[in-house]
Amino acid sequence: MALWDPYRHDMVAVLGETTGHLALQRIREKMRNDPEGNQILQERPRIRLSTLDLTRLDALPDGTFGKEYLQFLNVNKVTPDSRADVKFVDDEELAYVIQRYREVHDFVHTLLGMPTNMLGEVAVKCFEAVQTRLPMCILGAALGPLRLSARRLQILTTTLVPWALTNGRNATFMMNVYYERYWEMDVESLREQLGLTPPPTF
Predict the structure, then answer these.
(1) At residue 192, does pLDDT exceed 50?
(2) DSSP states of 69-81 as a string?
(3) What is the pLDDT of residue 170?
(4) From residue 131, how far is each of 26, 29, 89, 176, 177 by CA, in Å?
(5) Residue 58 and residue 69: Cα distance in Å, rounded?
(6) What is the dihedral of CA 116, 117, 118, 122, to 10 degrees?
(7) Does 30 or 7 have the greater pLDDT score?
(8) pLDDT, tens digit, for every residue of 21-67?
(9) Are 106 and 81 in contact (CB under 8 A)?
């Protein structure tokens, strides 16, 4: 069901949990070996409406990461509370790792400048597949294009996929980013700091 309908977030969540054990172990090791990533593991911050100060984010100047993230939520009519809680990962720390992965997904969208339509989702999945090696990301990147029109498929294969794969390889490991510390930073400066190239026009 997750592969048939990528917008079934509940089924995508189950797929990620039941197929991702080895990848989650690898992600945890990369986080443990990075100062910022290890701090995230220790403090276990959550991204929920209850933990976000949306009024503060709205008051930030245009172009800051926090303001861009809030605009992403508003434009795409999404909320951080739509991310399902983990049910099928027994290891407590690994359960947090996949929960964190889900909750920072919209941050990655914001920094990559990708919308939540099928083109944008496949591009983000390509990026995440390279970074995390989670089977659900690899499957989403491979099978998502089957739902696209010929014109959009051409845009994806000639522009978005090469850009997403290159960024996935070259950028900072995104699970090691304590995003909540960067609300006030200019989003272009943050992209540069993380090794992300600007999103292509399409």
Answers:
(1) yes
(2) HHHHHHHHT--GG
(3) 98
(4) 11, 13, 20, 11, 13
(5) 10
(6) -30
(7) 30
(8) 899 999 999 999 999 999 999 999 999 999 999 999 999 999 999 99
(9) no
- Residue 139's pLDDT is 87
Straight-line distance from the first to the last Cα atom of the chain, in angstroms, rounded to the nearest whole number = 29
Write down how long the chain is.
Answer: 202
Comparing CA positions, the residue from 124, 125, 147 lying closest to residue 135 is: 125
SS3 content of the chain, % helix, strand, coil (to 5): 70, 0, 30
Strand partners, 64: 186
The two structure tokens encoding residue 21: 């054990």
Confidence at residue 42, expressed as pLDDT on a 0 to 100 scale = 98
- pLDDT at 145 > cutoff 80: yes
- Rg of the Cα trace of the chain? 16
Could you tell me the two tokens for 64? 């800051």
Residue 163 identity (one-letter amino acid): W
**How many Cβ atoms sit within 10 Å of the Cβ of residue 75?**
10
Tell me which amino acid residue 100 is. R
DSSP 82-151: GSPPP-S--SHHHHHHHHHHHHHHHHHHHHHT--SSHHHHHHHHHHHHHHH--HHHHHHHHHGGGGS-HH
Tokens of 97: 């790792």
What confidence score (pLDDT) does residue 85 get? 81
